[in-house]
Amino acid sequence: MKKECEIVQDLTFGYCDGTLNPASKELVEKHLVKCEECKKVYEEIKKDKKMDDDDKIEIDYLKRINKKLKRKKIMIVISSICIVLLVVLHIVAFICYYHDHTTIEIFMNKKISEEQMTNIQNQIKNQIENVEITYVSPEEQLEKMKERFKENQDLLAGYNAENNIFTPSFIIKTKTIQDMEKIEKSLEDVEGIKLISSTSSNLYESLIMNIFTVLYN
Q: What is the Cα–Cα distance from 38 to 23, expressed in whole angstroms?
């Protein structure tokens, strides 16, 4: 009988797990009906197994919670990065907009005289006191364009100081958009000016406009 109890108690773990074959399962069940000692062992094993199962369920639950928290943290970080990027983009857009509307380049005719250029400068200064005027010679324009289009040299192939298609210009910078609008309006019909353009315009468009507006005078 003692030997049978030892066998049954060994099989009880498999019985609780449901891994016994039908013959062994039947042996354990019949023995537990008549043996109180083995039944107590079985109840202890079942109790311990239930505790282990509960612990496993709790661990799995905690793992799921932890996974959700990690996912939530990642989403918060991504959202924060997106918000920061949006703020930066808005700031950059504002700076570009402000620069675009407070800086213009005035392209002049090829045959413009020194007197006409001086008159244009004086007219600008008479409109706005604190204005920055930078003169750009045709040679500087050509070199600037060659630098910008250094990967497409064929666009400007053959052009040099002798057959320079570019004209002199003034780069005008003001403190406010209102000042720039005032200057633009005052220069609408001034003799000697060929084109007034934003310095932030597309470079290819600027090049094409330069070629077609200043090549023939």
A: 18
User: CA distances (Å), 58 to each of 46, 51, 174, 207, 213, in order?
Assistant: 18, 10, 68, 70, 78
Question: Taking Cα atoms as reference points, which of 45, 42, 44, 7 lies closest to residue 27?
Answer: 7
76-97 pLDDT, tens digit per residue, is 888 888 888 877 776 665 555 5
Give the orientation angle of helix 203-214 with respect to helix 138-148, to 10 degrees: 140
User: Tokens standing for 8?
Assistant: 């049954």
The pTM for the full model equals 0.45
Residue 86 C-alpha from the chain's centroid: 8
Give the pair of three-digit tokens for residue 142: 């050509």
How far apart CA 209 and CA 191 sit, in angstroms, is: 19
